[in-house]
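Colleagues,

For the teaching module next term, I've prepared a clean inverse folding example: a structure given as tokens, and then the sequence designed for it. I'd like students to try predicting residues themselves before seeing the answer, so please don't circulate the second half yet.
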């Protein structure tokens, strides 16, 4: 169980890092006259990462019975 948690935490860290990197790239491209199709693809990838991050976070938080 601990190894699973550690691997999930590592993956979460990787996804968050990639999400931040995409923020930077998208902001830089939008400041220039960039290929809008490329910007759209990067934004779509960023949304996919956000969904994966949310899924991982939900699996890392223990269920609390109220």
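(Answer key — instructors only)
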């Amino acid at each position: 169980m601990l190894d699973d948690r550690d691997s999930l935490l590592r993956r979460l860290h990787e996804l968050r890092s990639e999400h931040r990197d995409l923020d930077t790239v998208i902001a830089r491209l939008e400041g220039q006259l960039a290929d809008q199709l490329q910007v759209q693809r990067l934004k779509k990838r960023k949304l996919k990462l956000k969904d994966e991050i949310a899924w991982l976070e939900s699996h890392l938080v223990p269920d609390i019975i109220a």
